[in-house]
């Protein structure tokens, strides 16, 4: 038997009538067609509409569990068929013959007729109703009994209830007789169990969970599953989608860097232009900064060309040579509408929900940018900008001009979705509708509705989503299996690169090939991160055929050839930092471990991260972006305070190899976290003058000597050995050397005092001209 020969499972006539289940969901034999997963989703929705879920929320039916029940039923049929092939093809014929010798023939017929009446379709509008007969019918009766012994089906008992069979027929007596008869036949596989006991194992092993039963089957019965192995993995994915945990945004828990996986990857670092190693970057939320400057200078500063020279002079005087302006691009009007409809009357659109990559007209457009760039260049400051590559705004130009470039479905992924809310489209010919339940915050739908009024053409386009939290409801997810879209996005990146010497790629890790595959087209057994996408999964071979190259490697190579001298900076988490710089070729990559581990004083973990990095390849350390906060995190003063701990970690940030990045308001000690939709600061904060002075005395002088610290070739890390023979992991001691000048930094990232000696450095890798490397240490 192959998956093309579907048994499905029977639902009682009572339940079919109660829930008005369409007979089209059933085969002519009366089995529920579990292969049609969208139909199962609709069935679950129909059942839930009839149940009082407000009073009994635990009665909610899961489409994934319904599918799992049907698939388990099919797998049991398959195991029975294989068992019969090994033992006796006429097993159930023999069993039925035995029953007729122990029971009156009329009683057996009574059972069979009752089963057919209660569990077959018997629908008048079907061409032919094929009733199972004799041995085949007996097999179905046995499996109905086995299913009813499973405690995990309690929420589905009504659909499969065998109580009437027990009352009206000799059903239970027949099962007992069959059990005794099966003891005469060989046990199943390597067990000592008869067929019925063997099929009861998953329910005995995991009585409370269908997901656990499937996991048991895939690990313990894999060789028995035959053609059903992949379907079973997919069923597990469906269950994971419904039970997936939701994590807060950001990089997640920090782990020590481990580069063993990179041994199998090729090395292809991008060459730095001469200015890149010494970049010191400060981020500014553009709209908030201009509002703050307007109040500070007592005049309207609403365009970027109006940013005062004094502010640019101040940045240069302090040692900053790169300015990242967040929110320069033309933003989505729909994003602003959504946010204001949801309760924030002053909200701007998100800086990461974009209409197009043009400098916003309200900021002065391209002309204002050119004027600001010129004034910054006169002070040695380069401008940085964002690209948000995985999605556009829900009303971005591409949504209307190239709707095929987005991930979409012809129908909503779930039948409970409705789209009767306000039209968010600026175009008279096309409507864009957010799913209704976003507005009352009772659901966070995966898709929005796109419709062309003249033709009625309708699409359901996915929102941007990284699988860790809720979908971003003001965005539209691009489809990276579309080669035309990929090329258009590369052209957009080149357009930005010709105007900005530094580009930061937001959430870059989501576009690594393996994560596009995992999130949007998951292979069987790897789904569950984005609900509904397991239905559209692909094998790795199929996916790699459609996306033969890493998108980021293609971007890096094209920028190097067509816009050389652009520093490419990736916001990447998920333990992919080394891969992004060493293999994909990004010049710099976020190092969230710096902030998270030092904040939490996980000092040994961070020291091990540095040790692991330099013993594998010190070049990776040089390419880290170290920061004490970023726009998605709490402010630096909230995380590190404004005393010695702050200045100690800040000193490390500006004296370690890599790129130091300061947050908006970090130097002033501002505590407010500025949302991406903010037009202004809401807290009335004054700059912390003591903190600012501390920077002038302890931090800015080091920033102006970045050439001493920026490279990693001569970076050495030391352990502090205490008199008792132990190592104090709270103390960071490291040295560097360039052009005959040396530096030594020592910092204790803990309140208890420390004393000891440093001897030999931690091991570091040294590369030979032929590419081979060995590990050394020095005293």
Task: Describe it.
By secondary structure, the protein is α/β, with parallel strands linked by helices. Among the domains are: 13-243, no CATH class; 394-479, no CATH class. The chain is built from 30 helices and 21 strands. The strands form six sheets. Strands 1-2-5-12-13-14-15-16 form an eight-stranded parallel β-barrel, surrounded by five helices. The longest helix is centred in the first third of the chain and has 25 residues, at 63-87. The radius of gyration is 32 Å and the shape is globular.
Shape: globular
Largest sheet: 8 strands, parallel, barrel
Number of helices: 30
* Strand adjacency order, main sheet: 1-2-5-12-13-14-15-16
- Work out the helicity level: 25-40%
Unreliable parts: 122-130
Structural class: alpha/beta
Secondary structure: number of strands: 21
Percentage of residues in DSSP E strands: 5-15%
* End-to-end CA span: 70 Å
What integer value in Å does the Rg equal?
Answer: 32 Å
Overall pLDDT: 93
In terms of topology, how is this protein built?
Layout: H1 13-18, H2 37-50, H3 63-87, H4 91-102, H5 105-119, H6 134-148, H7 157-160, H8 163-168, H9 171-182, H10 195-205, H11 210-220, H12 222-225, H13 229-243, E1 281-285, H14 286-297, H15 309-318, E2 322-326, E3 329-331, H16 333-341, E4 354-359, H17 365-377, E5 382-387, E6 391-393, H18 397-401, E7 408-409, E8 430-433, E9 447-452, E10 458-462, E11 475-477, H19 483-497, E12 502-505, H20 513-520, H21 540-546, H22 551-562, E13 567-570, H23 577-582, E14 588-590, H24 592-599, H25 603-616, H26 618-622, E15 624-627, H27 636-640, H28 644-655, E16 659-662, H29 689-698, H30 700-703, E17 716-721, E18 727-738, E19 741-748, E20 764-767, E21 773-776
Parallel strand pairs: 1-2, 1-16, 2-5, 5-12, 12-13, 13-14, 14-15, 15-16
Antiparallel strand pairs: 3-4, 6-11, 7-10, 8-9, 9-10, 17-18, 18-19, 20-21
Helix pairs in contact: 2-3, 3-13, 4-6, 4-9, 11-13, 19-22, 24-25
């Amino acid at each position: 038997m192959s998956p093309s020969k579907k048994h499905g499972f029977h639902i009682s006539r009572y339940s079919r009538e109660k829930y008005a289940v369409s007979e089209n969901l059933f085969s002519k034999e009366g089995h529920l067609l579990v292969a049609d997963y969208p139909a199962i989703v609709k069935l679950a929705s129909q059942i839930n509409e009839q149940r009082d879920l407000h009073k009994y929320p635990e009665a909610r039916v899961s489409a994934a569990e319904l599918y799992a029940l049907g698939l388990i039923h099919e797998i049991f049929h398959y195991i029975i068929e294989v068992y019969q092939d090994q033992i006796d093809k006429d097993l159930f014929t023999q069993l039925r013959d035995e029953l007729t010798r122990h029971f009156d023939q009329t009683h057996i017929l009574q059972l069979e007729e009752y089963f057919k009446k209660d569990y077959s379709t018997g629908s008048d509008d079907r061409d032919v109703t094929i009733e199972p007969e004799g041995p085949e019918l007996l097999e179905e009766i046995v499996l109905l009994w086995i299913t009813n012994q499973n405690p995990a089906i309690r929420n589905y008992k009504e659909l499969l209830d065998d109580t009437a069979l027990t009352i009206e027929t000799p059903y239970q007596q027949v099962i007992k007789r069959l059990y005794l008869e099966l003891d005469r036949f060989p046990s199943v596989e390597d067990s000592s169990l008869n067929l019925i006991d063997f099929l009861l194992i998953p329910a005995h092993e995991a009585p409370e969970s269908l997901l656990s039963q499937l996991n048991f089957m895939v690990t313990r019965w894999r060789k028995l599953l035959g053609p059903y192995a992949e379907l079973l993995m997919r069923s597990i994915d469906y269950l994971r989608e419904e039970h997936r945990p939701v994590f807060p945004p950001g990089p997640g828990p920090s782990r020590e860097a481990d580069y063993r996986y990179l041994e199998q990857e090729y090395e292809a670092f991008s060459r730095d232009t001469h200015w890149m190693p010494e970049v010191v970057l400060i981020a500014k939320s553009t709209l908030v900064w201009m509002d703050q400057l307007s109040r500070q200078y007592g005049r309207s500063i609403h365009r970027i060309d109006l940013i005062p020279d004094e502010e640019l002079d101040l940045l240069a005087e302090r040692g900053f040579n790169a300015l990242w302006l967040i929110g320069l691009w033309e933003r989505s009007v729909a994003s602003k509408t959504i946010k204001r409809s949801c309760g924030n009357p002053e909200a701007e659109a998100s800086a990461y929900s974009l209409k197009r990559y043009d400098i916003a007209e309200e900021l002065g457009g391209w002309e204002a940018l050119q004027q600001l760039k010129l004034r910054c260049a006169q002070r040695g400051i380069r401008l940085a900008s964002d690209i948000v590559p995985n999605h556009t705004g829900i009303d971005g130009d591409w949504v209307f001009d190239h709707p095929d470039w987005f991930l979409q479905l012809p129908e909503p992924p779930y039948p409970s979705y409705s789209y009767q809310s306000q039209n968010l489209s600026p175009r008279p010919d096309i409507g864009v509708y957010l799913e209704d339940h976003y507005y009352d915050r009772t659901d966070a739908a995966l898709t929005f509705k796109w419709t062309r009024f003249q033709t009625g053409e309708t699409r359901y386009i996915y929102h941007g989503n990284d699988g860790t939290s809720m979908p971003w409801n003001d965005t539209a997810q691009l489809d990276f299996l579309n080669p035309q879209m990929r090329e258009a996005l590369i052209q957009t990146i080149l357009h930005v690169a010709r105007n900005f010497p530094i580009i930061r790629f937001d959430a870059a890790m989501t576009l690594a090939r393996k994560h596009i595959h995992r999130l949007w087209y998951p292979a069987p057994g790897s789904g569950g991160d984005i609900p509904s996408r397991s239905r559209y999964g692909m094998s790795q071979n199929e996916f790699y055929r459609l996306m033969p190259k890493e998108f980021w490697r293609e971007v890096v190579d094209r920028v190097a050839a067509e816009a050389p001298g652009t520093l490419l900076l990736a916001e990447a988490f998920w333990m992919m930092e080394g891969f992004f710089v060493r293999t994909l070729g990004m010049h710099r990559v976020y190092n969230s471990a710096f902030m998270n581990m030092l904040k939490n004083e996980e000092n040994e973990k961070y020291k091990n991260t540095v040790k692991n990095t330099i013993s594998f390849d010190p070049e990776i350390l040089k390419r880290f972006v170290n920061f004490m906060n970023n726009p998605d995190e709490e402010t630096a003063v909230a995380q590190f305070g404004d005393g010695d701990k702050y200045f100690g970690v800040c000193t490390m940030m500006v004296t370690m190899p890599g790129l130091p990045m300061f947050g908006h308001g970090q130097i002033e000690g501002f505590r407010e976290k500025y949302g991406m939709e903010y037009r202004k600061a809401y807290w009335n904060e004054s700059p912390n003058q003591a903190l600012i002075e501390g920077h002038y005395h302890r931090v800015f002088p080091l920033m102006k000597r970045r050439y001493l610290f920026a490279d990693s070739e001569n970076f050495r890390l030391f352990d502090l050995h205490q008199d008792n023979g132990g190592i104090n992991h709270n103390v960071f001691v490291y040295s560097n050397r360039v052009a005959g000048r040396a530096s030594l930094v020592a910092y204790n990232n803990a309140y208890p005092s420390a004393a000891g000696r440093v001897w030999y450095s931690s091991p570091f890798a040294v590369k030979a001209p032929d590419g081979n490397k060995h590990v050394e240490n020095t005293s």
